[in-house]
Design a protein that fits this description.
single chain; 1 helix; rod-shaped; mainly alpha; about 20 residues
Amino acid sequence: MSPAQLGSTIFKEFEKRKML
């Protein structure tokens, strides 16, 4: 997995938690 993909995945997970 490329760093860009990894960062995008982490950001998506962060957004999910923030909305909960």
